[in-house]
Write a structure and sequence with these properties.
heterodimer, A: mainly alpha, about 0% strand, B: alpha/beta, Rossmann fold, 4-stranded antiparallel β-sheet, about 30% helix, elongated
């Protein structure tokens, strides 16, 4: 294992976050706060409680989830796509590193940023509503696992993309709609039965539900099912990244 | 002595196009090897396969005795690569990218070494500037610094002085010489044949994916190079007498210049006899000089199969 390489990649990626602190941290915190203010105020004035939880507090886990999923994807996809775009990926390909070091370095850095952003949003939400986290360790576990999973997904996206358009198409056309339709701002139990069934095909429902359970001990699906879904997604992404490095798909001809 | 790089039966195909054909090549430890070839000959493909950037179709590559696929960590950690293009980071600084490269290749931080490398290529005073603000020549130097950051035993320089001004080219040549003196093996591809002529111990010529020749530079120039004697005549000559036919002389310069090609490897060059026969024919000259084919002329001849 090349630990120096892991440190080099991780340190460089974290330094990039510090160079672009406004884009990396302030922007997602600001947009989430706006979501919180607009949705919390507009809808919260009509829906006072969902499953015994004030509406303002109810949407906090969903908002954090929305932020960490989009940030994880954009950070890790950009981290691997930009060297491909500039050509500096030659160095990574000629270095004595396997997919293990590359994944720990790039995905670890992207996930770290997401966890930091998630915690900052959580702290920001605490300024607006009275929050009580029933299972902080479970909340942290979900936060980390989802950040890692979506950072892996973003890494795959960055390798697959051969243009800036492809890089943004999946987050905008797939992830964002799935998140909005995945119970971020509502409980799926509020939907008509047919839409409740359809919603169960949306993987984001399981992520938001499990994460919300850690806060309020109520969820749309069993927390064990949510956990299993997160682990399954993580393992699939890990396998795909392993396959990319084994075959050289789009990175090594 | 065991070669530091050994390439055997190497082939590379891209679809129907065969980029490399059955390459056999050995690079000796501590030498400067000049790899020459026209555009698209396969130089960069060969380098990229040795470095692990491109996958081979068949054949074997060993570096210091290690297979470059099975033991990629051992082989890649020994190699530094300066690519042909200028793929540099944009927002980072020369110091940071060198530190990154060193770590990526498995070496712990060593600020003193990074400083030494940056100073050797006159980049120390730019160490904290964003790379995007540097000139093309400086960016190329940054790439060399990055390749040297992990103290490689083997350095690949793929067209290192392309687009670089004369002064900087001389600086780079000095760096290459210094590296060789410190025991680093250097493999150099270049379009500037004079660069190979000046630096290389051995020359390999590759064309259409095949290695045409590998030879010590001095021997190559001796064996394949032609030597010629040019005589500047006192009076113009329109037709040479039949007594000089055997010398296959070329008459030029409006009949005022006579050129004779000869081989220094032969027992007799024929120069003495020629001068004697010229005297006998009454042809006088007021100056003469000899010259040898440059490596460039030999290279062009090899590539065009004229020699």
């Amino acid at each position: 294992m090349n630990f120096h390489a892991i440190r080099a990649i991780y340190r460089t990626e974290m330094a990039r976050m510090m160079r672009t602190v406004v884009q990396s941290i302030v922007a997602p915190v600001l947009s989430t706060s706006l979501y919180f203010v607009v949705f919390g105020s507009a809808i919260g004035s009509r829906i006072t409680e969902i499953d015994g939880v004030g509406y303002g507090a109810f949407i906090v886990p969903g908002l954090i989830m929305l932020a960490i999923m989009t940030e994880s994807i954009s950070n890790s996809s950009f981290a691997i796509y930009f060297p491909k775009f500039t050509g500096t990926i030659f160095e990574l390909l000629s270095a004595p590193v396997s997919f293990v070091e590359v994944v720990i370095g790039y995905v670890g850095a992207a996930a770290s940023k997401s966890v930091v952003i998630g915690m900052i949003i959580l702290a920001t939400a605490g300024l607006f509503v009275d929050l009580h986290i029933a299972h902080p360790l479970v909340m942290l576990l979900f936060l980390v696992l989802i950040s890692v999973s979506f950072s892996l997904f973003g890494f795959i996206l960055g390798v697959w993309a051969d243009g800036w358009e492809k890089l943004t198409i999946v987050p905008v056309l797939v992830i964002m709609p799935l998140t909005f339709l995945g119970g971020t701002f509502y409980s799926i139990s509020m939907l008509p039965p047919v839409w409740q069934t359809i919603s169960l095909f949306n993987p984001v429902v399981y992520l938001v539900s499990g994460f919300r359970w850690a806060f309020f001990e109520n969820s749309d699906v069993a927390v064990a099912v949510s956990f299993a879904m997160v682990m399954a997604f993580l393992l699939v992404c890990l396998f795909v990244v392993y396959w990319i490095f084994k075959t050289g798909y789009k990175i090594r001809c | 002595m065991q070669p530091i790089i050994s390439v055997s039966g190497l082939n590379k195909t891209y679809g129907d196009f065969q980029a490399l054909r059955n390459i056999d090549l050995q690079i000796n430890r501590g030498e400067i090897f000049g790899l020459l070839g026209p555009n698209g000959a396969g130089k960069t493909t060969l380098i990229n396969i040795i470095c692990g950037i491109v996958k081979k179709s068949s054949g074997t590559v060993t570096v210091d005795g290690f297979d470059n696929v099975e033991n990629f960590r051992e082989t890649r950690s020994r190699i530094g690569l300066v690519p042909q293009e200028l793929p540099t980071e944009t927002f980072e600084t020369p110091y940071d990218v060198c530190r990154f490269s060193r770590g990526l290749f498995g070496k712990p931080d060593n600020p003193a070494h990074i400083e030494k490398v940056l100073r050797s290529l006159s980049l120390w005073d730019k160490k904290n500037n964003k790379i995007m603000t540097l000139s093309g020549g400086m960016k190329r130097r940054v790439l060399i610094c990055k390749a040297l950051a992990h103290e490689p035993e083997i350095l690949f320089l793929d067209e290192p002085t392309a687009g670089v001004d004369v002064e900087l080219r001389q600086d780079m040549w000095n760096v290459v010489q210094a590296l060789r003196e410190s025991g680093v093996t250097v493999i150099l591809t270049t379009h500037y044949i004079e660069e190979a002529e000046q630096l290389a111990d051995r020359i390999g010529v590759i064309n259409h994916g095949e290695v045409i020749i590998v030879q010590e530079k001095t021997r190559l120039m001796k064996e394949l190079g032609k030597k010629q004697l040019v005589l500047h005549l006192s009076e113009s000559v329109s037709v040479l007498p039949s007594s000089l036919e055997n010398y296959q002389l070329e008459l030029g310069g409006d009949g005022l210049e006579l050129t004779y090609h000869y081989d220094t490897q032969r027992d007799r060059t024929g120069i003495t006899a020629l001068l004697s026969d010229l005297h006998a024919a009454g042809i006088k000259f007021n100056d003469l000089h000899t010259s040898q084919s440059s490596l460039e002329e030999i290279f062009v001849g090899l590539v065009n199969k004229k020699i």
